[in-house]
Amino acid sequence: MSEAKRFLPGAKIGVMGGGQLGRMFAISARRMGYHIHTFSPDKNGPAAQLSDRATAASFSDEAAVRKFTRTIDLLTFEFENIPAKTIEWASSKPVVRPRGEILLIAQNRLREKEFLSAAGFPVAPFRKVASLAEFGRAAEVIDRPAILKGGSFGYDGKGQERIDLGTDLESVWRERDDEVCVLEKRIEFEKEISVIVARAPDGTMAVFPVCENVHRNHILDLTVAPARIEEKVAQAARELACAIALRFDLVGLLAIEMFLKSDGELLINELAPRPHNSGHWTIEGCVTSQFEQHVRAVCGLPLGATDLLQPTAMVNLLGDLWTDGEPNWSAALAESNVHLHLYGKRHPRPGRKMGHLTAVGQTQDAAAASAIRARSSLLERLPATREEQTSFALR
Ligand code: ADP
Ligand code: MG
């Protein structure tokens, strides 16, 4: 049965997408003896740099997609925003894990919310908005403040807009390109949390500890693990994650972002059928990292233990840190519990995820304080290097 097929070290794994998630997946997979071939529109991106082989071509280049899939045994994804046609072309030969249908649901907010609510999972009240008239009707039934979100291919808060009672709906709608959107109630949450679950082809599941996430300008800023929440809430979050993975008949990794309200209620915000930024801390914080777990799950190997090693915190490093020149790496690593991850991106644009820092500690607070301190010290002025001092002395 091809569904339960196992891929042992030496097999060729293809990865669609070429960003940092693919890079860290490739590091884990190659360490375990797999061959990695990435497919991405970018040449020499974060994943390509660490792959055995990289194809740089457009997702709409059918010949390139088909050629790529002929070189691999198994296909997986580090990025869900892949056109449906591309997934179809790519699915002709290799085993595809997770299934393409899961990507198609997760890449579109409306499909995702409809799937979740039809299956009885808790989500914020929402309505489809495909016209100005529909927008008006949705704004009548969804309490404001609300958020208008673009339907597909959104990330890091792109395409999101707050809608208040006084907002002029017509002018908001005029700015949109007739895209199908979702209007959803703005939730007064106490915390944002996320859970990552892995499911193997034989149905076994392993859930990582629940972590809490702080966003800044809609971009993940800080993750602290394990989440500082009541155990019964953590248990409910893990159960929700497993139930969704089961409902999807998932093989691979699924990250679930949730809002925790002050009354303990959990609402599901978003799904990602792949490793997730809020799981980077597992590299240092857990017995098995999310990336190794992804490899194990899609290859049909036994899943690794997800036990916490130590409280851990992760902060993202955005391109803004490069505004005044190269960050001070040695200052950031002054505390020996801090670890640096850089993604090999050459152009540090503001808001672009360039890397992250992870800190372990005795407690979540200690780990978070270390990670935040380390990031702040990146902006400390660099002391003159020996060469600079020498050249200055010679002048
Ligand atoms: P993205 O695909 O950009 O990650 P999200 O829907 O996860 O989109 O939104 C990004 C962030 O915006 C969330 O993590 C949360 O902080 C905030 N946000 C999104 N939807 C809501 C909502 N309904 N209520 C309150 N905050 C929200
Ligand atoms: Mg999100």
Written description of the protein model:
The chain is α+β, with helices and mostly antiparallel strands and 395 residues long. The protein is built from 13 helices and 18 strands. Strands 10, 11, 12, 13, 14, 15, 16, 17 and 18 form a nine-stranded antiparallel β-sheet that branches. The longest helix is centred in the middle third of the chain and has 18 residues. The chain is globular. The N and C termini lie far apart (74 Å). The C terminus is likely disordered. The protein binds adenosine-5'-diphosphate and magnesium ion. Adenosine-5'-diphosphate binds next to strand 15. The site of adenosine-5'-diphosphate (ADP) has 15 residues, from strand 15.
Helix-strand category: alpha+beta
Spans of at least 5 consecutive residues with low confidence: 391-395
Count of β-strands = 18
Overall pLDDT metric = 94
Q: Roughly what percent helix?
A: 25-40%
Instruction: Give the CA-based shape.
Output: globular
Largest sheet: 9 strands, antiparallel
> How much of the sequence is in beta strands?
25-35%
